[in-house]
Amino acid sequence: MRPILIRAIIISLIVGSLLTLINQFERVTALELPNLWKMGLSYVVPFCVSLFSALAVKAPPTD
Question: What is this structure's pTM?
Answer without folding.
Answer: 0.80
